């Protein structure tokens, strides 16, 4: 087991004003600066009560959140910090939703604490195996076999079902039914090389995946488990690599990140029409010299977090020609992954040396226009919006087609927007 005292060091005095705290792993001298210590994945549980990160060398540490809470640290085993030894390098991890009541939950009753629901944690390993853990007991529930390469990303659709989606360097995605211990699985093929990342739309109807070397951005149906389309024009450069993707919380925008030898860029897409809404490299020339490792939309959809190899974190508000926030330059510990807390306000980043940093994220009050658009777009497609008898300006706002115009006209002191 890991403990705060013996295995990690809490650094509460940050050098960067936005840094809340940092978890540093204490390693034996023989493991310092050796491959295998990277934090490739971090995650918060759906209710925000737990945080997990792959600290390198096959170890995953799970801690109760917030970290300074004394609840359950002495005498309350349900809330005690836990570690999971996976035996292989951990490349991807994800918390699962709490099982729904009924037969699905009963399948895990033997491993759940008495009177408690089980909280699952999936870990994707270098040898292609996915291990499923019960967070409350610290026990392994079962393993999933089938991938023939590194399991790079894991996603649980947050619709209450026990479904796990995995992407791998074997060029496939797999959809596992954990209610049947993964014995029912759908295999999706189409990528020509490693799959870097995958994400699921908020309504759980679509999934997107990006290939690191094949320059493909694929959309898939999670209702029929079929290929929908490849978003063409994602990369015109022959040597570019795709690294990450994420849906906005309302599902109306898909962001994809790519980089080449000398620049990076982020494309914003309409997943319903396959239209490219904007490319950030066209407006952020000063930021284009470093590799993007990960991107993620904030829970309110107002910001996009960007992790690059020269700074731990950048945060951008779509439509602005400046970064809302960026951390100090960091040439010592490059960022590899990021994850927002479900309630926002905090974002965690994992580093190449196995550490985790927690940053204070912007938390503005959403406008009425943004709230109305988010609610509407969560359940209404672009084609349905376009059929409504609305003024052109409102249609452009609802379909996010106003972003390029705002990028051309707005400045750091001028944030005009129709809803304000």
TrEMBL record:
Domain SOCS box: 365-404
UniProt xrefs under InterPro entries: SOCS_box (IPR001496), SOCS_box-like_dom_sf (IPR036036), WD40/YVTN_repeat-like_dom_sf (IPR015943), WD40_PAC1 (IPR020472), WD40_repeat_CS (IPR019775), WD40_repeat_dom_sf (IPR036322), WD40_rpt (IPR001680), WSB_SOCS-box_domain (IPR051983)
Annotated pathway: Protein modification; protein ubiquitination
SUPFAM superfamilies in alphabetical order: SOCS box-like, WD40 repeat-like
Segments annotated as WD repeats: 144-178, 292-317, 340-359
Any one biological process term the GO annotation gives: intracellular signal transduction
PROSITE patterns: SOCS, WD_REPEATS_1, WD_REPEATS_2, WD_REPEATS_REGION
Signal peptide residues on this chain, from the entry's feature table: none
Keywords of the record: Repeat, Ubl conjugation pathway, WD repeat
Protein name, entry field: WD repeat and SOCS box-containing protein 2
Source species: Austrofundulus limnaeus (Annual killifish)
